[in-house]
Amino acid sequence: MLKFLQGQYDYIYFFYGLSFLYLFIVCFTLEKEKLGKLPWFSLGLFALLHTFNEWMEIYAINTEVGRIFSIAHLGVLAGSYLFLLEFARKGIWRTKSKGWWMYPVVFLLILFTNKQGINGLAISLRYLLGLPAGLLAAFSIYRVSNEETRDRKVLLVLSILMVFYSFTSGLIAPKSEFFPGNWINSESFNYTFGFPVQLLRGLIALFLAVTLWYYSPNLAGSEYNPHKYRLPFKPTKWIIMFSLVVLIGIGWVFTNYLDYYAGIQIIKNTKANRNSPLNKLIGELTRIEQSAYLLSRFSAVKTALISSKTEDIDKALVLMNKYRDRCSAFDALLLDARGRVVTSTDWSLPESKANKSYSNLAYFKDAIKGQTGYYFVPGDTYNERVYYVGFPIKDEEEKIIGVIAFKKIISVKPIMKYRLISIIITMFVCIITMVFFVVLRRKENLIEYIEDAHARLKTVDQMKTDFISIVSHELRTPLTAIKNAVSILIKKELNNNISEENKKDLLEIILKNTNRQTRMVNDLLDVSKIEAGVINVAMENSNVLDIVKEVFSSLEPVAREKEIQLKIICQKESLILEHDPEHLRRILTNLMVNAINFTPKNGQVCLKIESNQDNAIFNVSDTGIGICAEDQEKLFNKFYRAAEAKTRYKAGTGLGLVIAKGLVEIQGGKIWVESALGKGSCFIFTIPNKKISYT
Amino acid sequence: MKKRILIIDDEVDILMTTKLALESHGYEVDTAETGEDWISKFDKQVVDLLLLDLRLPNKNGFQVAREIK
User: Which residues of A touch B (CB under 8 A)?
Assistant: First the structure.
């Protein structure tokens, strides 16, 4: 194991728990905002219980804990995994009731496979609940990622992280004597990679939380925000993030300083106090050494080594158990001259490892040379600090035939108490910082949102003001013309001065402007209907070319007057399409009238109808004045009229394209314009149809 | 001599009706749809009264008035 991580199991567990707390907070805020299709709240509860689980572990490392504590600890672990399973279940079935059978299945599996009681349960839970729940959760996230197009990558990353987590948590479990715990476990992981698996799990949880955190605004976008809402860069966020890292670092240094300081205090007390922890410890270690020495003298032990018969070994084991209990050691091991285990009081030592060579261990190397071997493990592969004593066993000819070894778990709880205090202080500071961080972020988010909404409302307000001024102008102009004409006709003294022809002109002006007024009012009503979404659609399957012909014949006189040629290009005799004929007529009329109005004399207006698998495409092109790019963007806005339009064509309401757009969209189509100034314009719209048929 | 009145408005119908009304009162009336239109058509002619719409395409009424001056 990496040097700086030795003896730091408690702090690693602290970090592990903190990452899960962070994940919980992130999940909790996600749920608050009602985001996404996945039940993040369940994942949050899993993370919260996992935090408790890991922090209980710190307590278990640093103080004496009772049986009730162990059972509670186990319950918290089981609870956290159950919430993970719940997350997976809800994510896969999306309903409250389906998939409940998973719980009894898991329960029965654990009940029937567990043979080690409480101790084995912790391991069975990981294999039979943690691993499948994690993998199912990853699967459910992956499935949602296939449905979402925008947040796909984020969800994929999350599901991959979840797979990693389920393997590190569900497969790399504490050592056990059955498969796969005897083959892959947290100890073997530590030997292979040089750092504890708990650190890796903590890092995975951190990545999970950070991924969720930074993409949560995007996830939010899919539900309640019509436009993708992303927070801009804010330095405060990073400062808090950085300070959290610094805090964890300071906490670590502080913890280790207290550890060191407590050690010094204990040594100081040693001289004065016989009952000081160090004196006690020295006494215990001396007793272990004595026991090892005594055991190495027993002929039964020697016989066991020489004969290696089962009954001899069993006799030796009885003695070893006795002496182990007498000196309150954890385990006693009997090794032969080549370092292989002959017998051991360790129940968890698997059969397959009985012949494993311990020859490379330091205490064995010393003992086989005839000295007493000592070996101190400062919290390396275990959470505990372990002390080994190896003593050589000699036969009658003073030849070393084996080694008797004792393993003692050193209780350094007085020192550990200081570590615990330091960790708890760091814990509180970190939690406060994190909560502050979240609150601040939510506040920032809210402020941003309000500012944005305010800006949008302002634009809407401006648009309304413009709307009213334009409407009143558009309505007043024809009224003025009518009023003028009527007042001339009605006054005798004026009436006498004008010719009969002019009188007729005036009457025509009245009629024309009345029509214009009517058209304007109708258009306004249609626009408001479209905007309110209450416009009726009566879709029917019929030949659209009939409507096209109708529109053309109605526009023919106007076009002829302006000497404009009208043309239809369509490959087919008929095009049956599901559409609303009234709406289509209106769209075509609006576009064609525009085209005719903006095309100078001797020009051409052409309607091209094409169709592909999904859409029928109508293309109205003219040889008119064209529209510049700037105007093209605003063209479909209410009352927008390009500068050129205002000069050459006065009768427009500025609503024709808005109505056309609304009517196209209500039929599921799209409308856009392609044009350049001076080169004519081309208005294109589509009407989708699943069953286009030709004859 | 008849007094000359110039009307500039982009709404043809308003132009027509106003022209008729003023003519029937015995004025000589010139009309133009935009400022540029009048400047190109009736350059250097003096008018007694100018009726000018403020909301005109391209150049607004104030700009046109400044140019005519």
Answer: 473, 477-478, 480-481, 484-485, 487-488, 493-498, 502, 505-506, 509, 512-513, 643, 646-647, 650
